[in-house]
Amino acid sequence: MKGKLRYAPAVICMLAIFISSSRSGEQLDSVLPWFQEWLPFLTDFNPMHYVAYFILALTISYGMGKRAGTWKGCLLNIALCVLYGITDEWHQSFVPMRSPDLLDLLHDGMGAAAASLLVLLFYSLFNRRRTRNYSTR
To answer: Keywords on this record (predicted)?
Structure first.
């Protein structure tokens, strides 16, 4: 994929987050037992913030390409995810039985930071290995 089309997975992920956030508290509570069958330790959907924003950060990294493997790209990715998290929390203020929560935003940022740092580490290790292979020839 070239250019802006590389960001399509990130847009799809943002759309999925938006749709999930549009569900009322009552709707989410009715689906929780189904998730608990697969994940018995799940008492609420708070861990899903980590997962959703981890995936969002990975998709943004894909869109960024090699820039995601720099500190500047890593920080930009986290900032974009947190910004989207802010808009998501604001959006929830209009949904019945939902409200904005700073703790949710913290979880969003933590998921995004974990993914962004993982991408940065991957690029660092990959580039170190590639550089070492060229220098031994």
So the answer is: Membrane, Transmembrane, Transmembrane helix
Burial group, residue 135, by CB count within 10 angstroms (0-12, 13-18, 19+): exposed
Residue type present at position 67? R
Q: Do 44 and 103 touch, CB atoms closer than 8 A?
A: no
In the 8-state DSSP scheme, what is residue 137? -
Sign of CA dihedral 32, 33, 36, 42: positive
User: pTM surpassing 0.85?
Assistant: no
Structure tokens at 117: 């740092």
Domain extent listing, the chain: 45-137
44 burial class (0-12, 13-18, 19+ CB within 10 angstroms)? exposed
**Tokens of residue 116, six digits:** 């962004």
Token representation of residue 17: 């987050």
